[in-house]
Amino acid sequence: MIEEGVDTSKRQFLTAAMTVVGAVGTGYIAVPFLAQMQPSTKAMAAGAPTEVDISKMETGQLLRVEWRGKPVWLLNRTPKVLETLDTLTDKLSDPQSNESIQPEYAQNTYRSIKPELLIAVGLCTHLGCSPTFRPELAPADLGPDWKGGFFCPCHGSWFDLAGRVYRGLPAPTNLDIPPHRYVTETLIIIGDEAEEGANA
Question: Does residue 56 lie within any of the structural domains?
Fold first, then answer.
Protein backbone atom coordinates (compact mmCIF):
# COMPACT_ATOMS: atom_id res chain seq x y z
CA MET A 1 0.00 0.00 0.00
CA ILE A 2 1.48 3.33 -1.09
CA GLU A 3 1.06 6.32 1.21
CA GLU A 4 -0.21 9.53 -0.32
CA GLY A 5 2.41 12.15 -1.00
CA VAL A 6 5.35 9.68 -1.17
CA ASP A 7 7.46 10.01 -4.36
CA THR A 8 8.13 6.39 -5.49
CA SER A 9 10.10 7.41 -8.57
CA LYS A 10 13.12 8.39 -6.41
CA ARG A 11 13.01 5.04 -4.63
CA GLN A 12 12.89 3.18 -7.99
CA PHE A 13 15.79 5.26 -9.34
CA LEU A 14 17.93 4.55 -6.26
CA THR A 15 17.14 0.82 -6.44
CA ALA A 16 18.11 0.68 -10.13
CA ALA A 17 21.26 2.74 -9.52
CA MET A 18 22.38 0.46 -6.67
CA THR A 19 21.77 -2.61 -8.84
CA VAL A 20 23.98 -1.17 -11.61
CA VAL A 21 26.73 -0.21 -9.13
CA GLY A 22 26.58 -3.71 -7.59
CA ALA A 23 26.86 -5.37 -11.02
CA VAL A 24 29.84 -3.18 -12.00
CA GLY A 25 31.54 -3.90 -8.66
CA THR A 26 31.04 -7.64 -9.12
CA GLY A 27 32.56 -7.34 -12.60
CA TYR A 28 35.65 -5.55 -11.21
CA ILE A 29 36.15 -8.38 -8.74
CA ALA A 30 35.37 -11.24 -11.15
CA VAL A 31 37.46 -10.14 -14.16
CA PRO A 32 40.89 -10.27 -12.42
CA PHE A 33 39.91 -13.49 -10.67
CA LEU A 34 38.93 -15.18 -13.95
CA ALA A 35 41.95 -13.71 -15.77
CA GLN A 36 44.39 -15.26 -13.31
CA MET A 37 42.89 -18.66 -14.07
CA GLN A 38 43.92 -18.38 -17.74
CA PRO A 39 47.35 -19.75 -18.74
CA SER A 40 50.07 -17.14 -18.99
CA THR A 41 51.49 -15.98 -22.31
CA LYS A 42 54.68 -17.86 -21.48
CA ALA A 43 52.72 -21.06 -20.77
CA MET A 44 50.75 -20.75 -23.99
CA ALA A 45 53.95 -20.13 -25.96
CA ALA A 46 55.57 -23.19 -24.35
CA GLY A 47 52.80 -25.42 -25.66
CA ALA A 48 52.61 -23.76 -29.05
CA PRO A 49 53.71 -25.57 -32.21
CA THR A 50 57.26 -24.91 -33.42
CA GLU A 51 58.01 -24.05 -37.06
CA VAL A 52 61.27 -25.39 -38.49
CA ASP A 53 62.82 -24.44 -41.81
CA ILE A 54 64.94 -27.34 -43.10
CA SER A 55 65.86 -25.75 -46.44
CA LYS A 56 69.53 -25.40 -45.43
CA MET A 57 69.96 -28.81 -43.79
CA GLU A 58 72.75 -30.89 -45.25
CA THR A 59 72.71 -34.67 -45.57
CA GLY A 60 73.84 -36.22 -42.29
CA GLN A 61 73.19 -33.04 -40.32
CA LEU A 62 71.41 -33.02 -36.94
CA LEU A 63 69.35 -29.93 -36.17
CA ARG A 64 68.17 -29.23 -32.62
CA VAL A 65 65.06 -27.19 -31.79
CA GLU A 66 62.87 -26.76 -28.72
CA TRP A 67 59.20 -27.71 -28.40
CA ARG A 68 57.25 -27.58 -25.10
CA GLY A 69 60.54 -27.14 -23.24
CA LYS A 70 61.96 -30.37 -24.70
CA PRO A 71 64.79 -30.82 -27.20
CA VAL A 72 63.62 -32.10 -30.57
CA TRP A 73 66.08 -33.52 -33.09
CA LEU A 74 65.75 -33.36 -36.84
CA LEU A 75 68.21 -35.70 -38.53
CA ASN A 76 68.70 -35.65 -42.30
CA ARG A 77 69.69 -39.29 -42.79
CA THR A 78 71.96 -40.46 -45.58
CA PRO A 79 70.95 -43.26 -47.99
CA LYS A 80 73.56 -45.48 -46.29
CA VAL A 81 71.92 -44.91 -42.89
CA LEU A 82 68.52 -45.83 -44.33
CA GLU A 83 69.96 -49.11 -45.64
CA THR A 84 71.44 -49.88 -42.21
CA LEU A 85 68.11 -49.54 -40.37
CA ASP A 86 66.74 -52.84 -41.70
CA THR A 87 69.85 -54.74 -40.57
CA LEU A 88 69.30 -53.95 -36.87
CA THR A 89 65.89 -55.56 -36.32
CA ASP A 90 67.15 -58.53 -34.29
CA LYS A 91 69.10 -56.24 -31.94
CA LEU A 92 66.19 -53.91 -31.10
CA SER A 93 63.65 -54.09 -28.30
CA ASP A 94 60.71 -52.76 -30.35
CA PRO A 95 61.75 -52.66 -34.04
CA GLN A 96 58.18 -52.06 -35.29
CA SER A 97 57.51 -49.36 -32.64
CA ASN A 98 54.42 -51.14 -31.32
CA GLU A 99 55.03 -50.09 -27.71
CA SER A 100 56.43 -46.63 -28.37
CA ILE A 101 54.96 -43.15 -28.64
CA GLN A 102 54.64 -41.80 -32.15
CA PRO A 103 51.85 -40.63 -34.43
CA GLU A 104 50.32 -43.39 -36.55
CA TYR A 105 51.93 -41.95 -39.69
CA ALA A 106 55.38 -42.45 -38.12
CA GLN A 107 54.91 -46.08 -37.08
CA ASN A 108 57.20 -47.58 -39.68
CA THR A 109 60.83 -48.67 -40.01
CA TYR A 110 62.01 -45.08 -40.46
CA ARG A 111 59.65 -43.68 -37.79
CA SER A 112 59.00 -40.69 -40.01
CA ILE A 113 56.79 -39.29 -42.75
CA LYS A 114 59.73 -39.00 -45.16
CA PRO A 115 62.36 -41.73 -44.80
CA GLU A 116 65.32 -39.35 -44.91
CA LEU A 117 64.14 -37.05 -42.08
CA LEU A 118 63.85 -38.28 -38.50
CA ILE A 119 62.06 -35.98 -36.06
CA ALA A 120 62.35 -37.22 -32.46
CA VAL A 121 62.18 -35.90 -28.90
CA GLY A 122 65.79 -35.92 -27.69
CA LEU A 123 65.13 -37.41 -24.26
CA CYS A 124 65.92 -40.95 -23.19
CA THR A 125 62.76 -42.85 -22.29
CA HIS A 126 64.46 -44.27 -19.19
CA LEU A 127 64.95 -41.25 -16.94
CA GLY A 128 64.88 -38.32 -19.35
CA CYS A 129 68.59 -37.71 -19.94
CA SER A 130 69.50 -36.30 -23.35
CA PRO A 131 71.46 -38.86 -25.40
CA THR A 132 74.44 -37.80 -27.48
CA PHE A 133 74.50 -38.06 -31.26
CA ARG A 134 77.11 -40.64 -32.26
CA PRO A 135 76.97 -41.07 -36.07
CA GLU A 136 80.33 -42.86 -36.38
CA LEU A 137 80.50 -46.61 -37.05
CA ALA A 138 82.02 -49.02 -34.49
CA PRO A 139 83.85 -46.52 -32.25
CA ALA A 140 86.22 -48.06 -29.70
CA ASP A 141 84.05 -47.13 -26.70
CA LEU A 142 80.81 -48.59 -28.17
CA GLY A 143 82.14 -51.62 -30.02
CA PRO A 144 81.67 -53.26 -33.43
CA ASP A 145 77.85 -53.53 -33.21
CA TRP A 146 77.45 -49.76 -33.19
CA LYS A 147 76.08 -48.60 -36.56
CA GLY A 148 75.61 -44.98 -35.55
CA GLY A 149 72.85 -43.63 -33.35
CA PHE A 150 72.17 -41.94 -30.04
CA PHE A 151 73.96 -42.99 -26.84
CA CYS A 152 72.58 -42.09 -23.41
CA PRO A 153 75.56 -41.35 -21.14
CA CYS A 154 73.45 -41.54 -17.96
CA HIS A 155 72.66 -45.27 -17.98
CA GLY A 156 74.03 -46.57 -21.28
CA SER A 157 70.93 -46.97 -23.45
CA TRP A 158 71.52 -47.19 -27.21
CA PHE A 159 69.13 -45.91 -29.88
CA ASP A 160 69.59 -46.39 -33.60
CA LEU A 161 69.23 -43.59 -36.14
CA ALA A 162 65.46 -44.14 -36.18
CA GLY A 163 65.33 -43.61 -32.41
CA ARG A 164 64.68 -47.32 -31.73
CA VAL A 165 66.15 -48.71 -28.50
CA TYR A 166 68.46 -51.71 -28.42
CA ARG A 167 67.31 -54.80 -26.53
CA GLY A 168 68.39 -55.43 -22.92
CA LEU A 169 69.13 -51.80 -22.02
CA PRO A 170 67.47 -49.57 -19.39
CA ALA A 171 65.30 -47.48 -21.75
CA PRO A 172 61.90 -49.23 -21.97
CA THR A 173 60.72 -47.75 -25.28
CA ASN A 174 61.96 -46.03 -28.41
CA LEU A 175 62.47 -42.27 -28.46
CA ASP A 176 59.17 -40.39 -28.71
CA ILE A 177 58.18 -38.96 -32.08
CA PRO A 178 56.26 -35.70 -31.72
CA PRO A 179 53.23 -34.91 -33.87
CA HIS A 180 54.36 -32.95 -36.92
CA ARG A 181 53.42 -32.09 -40.47
CA TYR A 182 55.00 -30.63 -43.57
CA VAL A 183 53.60 -27.25 -44.62
CA THR A 184 55.90 -27.24 -47.65
CA GLU A 185 58.81 -29.45 -48.71
CA THR A 186 61.12 -27.47 -46.42
CA LEU A 187 58.83 -26.10 -43.66
CA ILE A 188 57.71 -28.36 -40.82
CA ILE A 189 55.41 -27.64 -37.90
CA ILE A 190 56.21 -29.68 -34.79
CA GLY A 191 53.41 -30.09 -32.27
CA ASP A 192 50.56 -29.71 -34.73
CA GLU A 193 47.99 -32.43 -34.11
CA ALA A 194 46.39 -31.97 -37.54
CA GLU A 195 45.46 -35.11 -39.44
CA GLU A 196 47.27 -33.88 -42.51
CA GLY A 197 50.55 -34.70 -40.75
CA ALA A 198 50.56 -37.99 -42.58
CA ASN A 199 50.43 -36.34 -45.96
CA ALA A 200 53.85 -35.03 -46.89
Answer: yes
In the predicted model, residues of the chain with pLDDT beneath 70 are 1-7, 27, 30-47, 193-200
Strand, coil or helix: 43? helix
Same domain? 34 vs 84: no
- This model's pTM is above 0.85: no
3-state secondary structure 55-110: CCCCCCCEEEEEECCEEEEEEECCHHHHHHHHHHHHHECCCCCCCCCCCHHHCCCC
For 81-96, what is each residue's pLDDT tens digit? 999 999 999 999 999 9
Please check whether residue 133 is in contact with residue 148, taking contact to mean a CB–CB distance below 8 angstroms: no
Co-location of 57 and 120 in the same domain: yes
Q: Are residues 79 and 140 in the same domain?
A: yes
Instruction: Quote the CA–CA distance of 177 and 84 in Å, as a whole number.
Output: 20
Which domain covers residue 16, as residue numbers?
A: 1-38
